[in-house]
Amino acid sequence: MQTDARVGRMMEGVHGGGSGANRKYTTVLCSQQKQQSYGLQRQPQFDAIQHLLAGGIAGAVSKTCTAPLARLTILFQVKGMHSDVATLRKASIWREISRILYEEGFRAFWKGNLVTIAHRLPYSSISFYAYEHYKNMMQSIIASRDHKEYISSDVLVKLVSGGLSGITAASITYPLDLVRTRLAAQTNIMYYRGICDALSSICRDEGSRGLYKGLGATLLGVGPSIAISFTVYETLRARWQLQRPYDSSVLISLACGSLSVTFPLDLVRRRMQLEGAAGKARVYKSGLFGAFGHIIHSEGFRGLYRGILAEYFKVVPSVGIVFMTYETVKSLLSAGD
């Protein structure tokens, strides 16, 4: 606006205050303002599309890159359901990798990856979009009075927005997450031939409620997890860019995303998702907390962390790749506008 005013005064001085020149300048300025106003009206729509696309692509790329480690984690998490103590003691990552290669082949490391992508595309899209929506909504509600209060309210906004976005995305896409777990947990005996067969079989054998087994554990875990991830990521990224403004944005996103990372809840969720699968007897009959008690009683506290080593190997590159891809795709989409 100040630039427009200066240009206007320069034109007035050059033309000696001629009314024709002023009318011409006024017409051009009004036209530019209308275009800017139109662009601002369309910007939220473009932002929504960018967030949805970037979030979906980021989730799909990350899951595909870390699919072998994700499957190993799931296999270890569900081992205690129908295995004896002696079998559990022999379990190791390298033994499981050898078994998969020998019995199922190399491609089996990506078993269930198609449904993972089918789940992750909408999940990541909804998660990132909902986060931006909740954050903008809360920022417009919370009025900051001084700098100290602004910092505390900004962190609160990120935490609450992250938690709500995770809960929203998980609730909407949960049936696909359950199907993904069941497909990935299959070894030599194939109970489900694909996504559609799994969905129809679960609805037929267990009812529509069967598609939401373990949802409570999921929501308890995903809310705090996503809240912490988004908060840590955005805080670290902002501070990094403040201190090192010339560093690559891709490097910043990868490093900060890797550092922003609840495992026992995830393990219980996986086991509850497999409850009654393919006609097997139910193991956990007393809900979420009963499942925790059963695992501790039969496997000890270590049973709650079965598969955590493979998860550690997966989580750093996975989260880092998600945020890096998200920022990269968002930048490409913004540059194309």
Chart the SSEs and their pairings.
Layout: H1 2-15, H2 19-65, H3 67-77, H4 85-90, H5 93-104, H6 113-141, H7 147-185, H8 195-206, H9 215-243, H10 249-259, H11 263-273, H12 287-299, H13 308-336
Computed over alpha carbons, the radius of gyration is 26 Å
- Overall, the morphology is globular
Distance between the termini: 23 Å
Approximate strand percentage: under 5%
Note the total helix count.
13
Briefly note the structural class of the backbone. mainly alpha
Q: How many strand elements?
A: 0
Low-confidence stretches: 1-46
Name the helix and strand elements from N-terminus to C-terminus, one letter apiece.
Answer: HHHHHHHHHHHHH
Main pleated sheet:
none
Share of residues in helices: over 70%
Average pLDDT score: 74
Instruction: Specify the oligomeric state.
Output: single chain
Name some characteristics of this structure:
337 residues, mainly alpha
Provide a brief overview of the structure.
The protein contains 13 helices and no strands. With 337 residues, it is an all-alpha fold. The longest helix is centred in the first third of the chain and has 47 residues, at 19-65.
Protein architecture, described:
This protein is mainly α and 337 residues long. Helix content is 78%, strand content 0%. It is built from 13 helices and no strands. The protein has helices at 2-15, 19-65, 67-77, 85-90, 93-104, 113-141, 147-185, 195-206, 215-243, 249-259, 263-273, 287-299, 308-336. α1 (2-15) runs antiparallel to α2 and α6 packs antiparallel against α7 (147-185). The longest helix is centred in the N-terminal third of the chain and has 47 residues, at 19-65.
